[in-house]
Amino acid sequence: MDPSAPRTEPAGTPETEPRLRDRLTIPVLASGGILMAVMQTVVVPLLPDLPRLTGASAGAVSWMVTATLLSGAVLTPVLGRAGDMYGKRRVLTAALALMTVGSVLCALSSDIRVLIAARALQGAAAAVVPLSISILRDELPPERRGSAVALMSSTVGIGAALGLPLAALVVQYADWHTMFWLTSALGALGVTATWWAVRESPVREPGRFDVPGALGLAAGLVCLLLGVSQGGQWGWGSPRVLALFLAALVVLALWWWQQLRAERPLVDLRLVARPRVGLSHVAALLTGFAFYANSLVTAQLVQAPKATGYGLGLSIVATGLCLLPGGVTMLLFSPVSARISAARGPRITLALGAAVIACGYAVRIADSRDLWMIILGATVVATGTTLAYSALPTLILRAVPAGQTASANGVNVLMRTIGQATSSAAVAAVLVHHSGLVDGIPVPTLHGYLLAFAMAGAIALAACAAALVIPGDTPSGGTRRARGEALGARDEAMEGA
Q1: Which helix (H) or strand (E) holds 440?
Q2: Which of 130, 209, 254, 485 lies 20 to 30 Å from 84, alpha-carbon distance?
Q3: Which of 39, 296, 26 has the alpha carbon at shortest distance from 150?
Q4: Which residue stretches of 305-370 are H helix?
Q5: What is the mean pLDDT of the chain?
Q6: What is the DSSP string of 73-96?
């Protein structure tokens, strides 16, 4: 059967069913992205109590976050490439299923070893967003694609903003396993809805999967991110951390050499070397760093005891509610981002978003004592993140062939993940260095928080500069490119047939 031919439904199928499925494609994919972000954040309110609940040490409990980070970073480009080759809906459904299985295991067990393994399974869901964006490119007409991609990109922030207060409420008023039973039910619903409402994309990339490339990338990323995430705890100059960084350097250098010689590489490095793609990845790394500092610092700042002179002493639930306006703003501003990209080009949207993030941190530096100013600053940062994150996949979609969109966006999401991991380590280092004793407990000083804001704001300005040097399209050129993408996708599908 010709995959580029118009789709027809079997005889006897009601005409309204395919139309309903088409209308539900975007909401179903977006809900999958939100669920993925919720799944990543729900464990955060539990971390202080998990040593008591599981009988494990605080260091072991921290691996419930680290395991998800590592597996997500490794699996995102791998599953993206698999989606390009074997079917994006198929791989997307598998990623959601792994996430759901991990949630069920968390609901059934209190053994820290099982919990860490389950959280590693949930890391597969990090590939949901790049796979969904690739499906949207293949399935939607150009005039609908921009707003849909912008919404899909914003789901990361929306889900994170929703997940924290939801988890805090469950932890405060119910058994902590209830939270994972709830996410398991939502995951099962997501798998079912995706299989029913999302059509399999006809665009495929032929060839054999690059297993050596996948293993090499996995080994290099594990060494790199493990060193970054555990450096503060183990010591940045400790033999373990230095050995991990050295191993990452050697393994990734060998992986780079192997990718340049592979017939069908996992990551097309020649494509990455193009300024439109490579600079977009650099901007993604910097934006991820700047965005993540907002959530990390805000949560700690408002929960700091009042005895510090600046803290508000808020509960976990109240802290989550402080971040909620940012999530709502991301939902509302995603179509605005699409309009700006359509009118001015995505690189301008990206630069504007990074500049808005920097303005948000300027607000945080100006006043971090009053709750309304803290919420305002955090919301401004979230607004800039929406603009930037919505523009990044559009830049990638315009710069890569249709058969490599999932893997290219997977690499872009990987760069955001590396930026977030680096941000976490850098913010922690700043706050630990600038701490004082309050009632015998070390607590970061207000000066430390302000330094963290300044650091994140400077990184946001660097992301703005990187965006401005990306080769761009004129508005008319962008329109012609969008039309060309649609024709190119159709032609590639016909050639594949």
Answers
A1: none
A2: 254
A3: 26
A4: 316-344, 346-366
A5: 84
A6: HHHHHHHHHHHHHH-HHHHHHHHH
Is it the case that residue 78 has pLDDT exceeding 80? yes
Q: What angle do CA 298, 37, 91 make, to 5 degrees?
A: 155
Rounded Cα distance, 460 and 211, in Å: 36
In sequence order, what are the beta bridge partners of 442? 437
Report d(CA 179, CA 389) in Å as an integer. 28
Looking at residue 254, its pLDDT comes to: 96
Contact 148, 33 (CB under 8 A): no
Contacts 24+ apart (CB under 8 A), 136-144: 136/26, 136/29, 137/397, 137/402, 137/405, 137/485, 137/489, 138/88, 138/201, 138/202, 138/203, 138/402, 138/405, 138/489, 139/25, 139/199, 139/201, 140/26, 141/486, 142/482, 142/483, 142/485, 142/486
Say what the pTM is.
0.82
Instruction: Report d(CA 219, CA 211) in Å as an integer.
Output: 12
Q: What is the pLDDT of residues 341-389, one digit of tens each?
A: 888 999 999 999 999 999 999 999 998 888 899 999 999 999 999 999 9
Burial class (CB in 10 A: 0-12, 13-18, 19+), 441: exposed
Find tokens 């965006």 and name the residue: 467
Percent of the chain past pLDDT 70, that is, above it, reads 91
Angle at 178 between CA 172 and CA 182, to 5 degrees: 115
State both tokens at 331.
């939902």
Q: Does residue 171 carry a pLDDT above 90?
A: no
How many other CB atoms sit within 10 Å of the CB of residue 10?
Answer: 5
Report pLDDT digits (tens) over 247-260.
999 999 999 999 99
Which single residue is written with the structure tokens 């962008």?
478
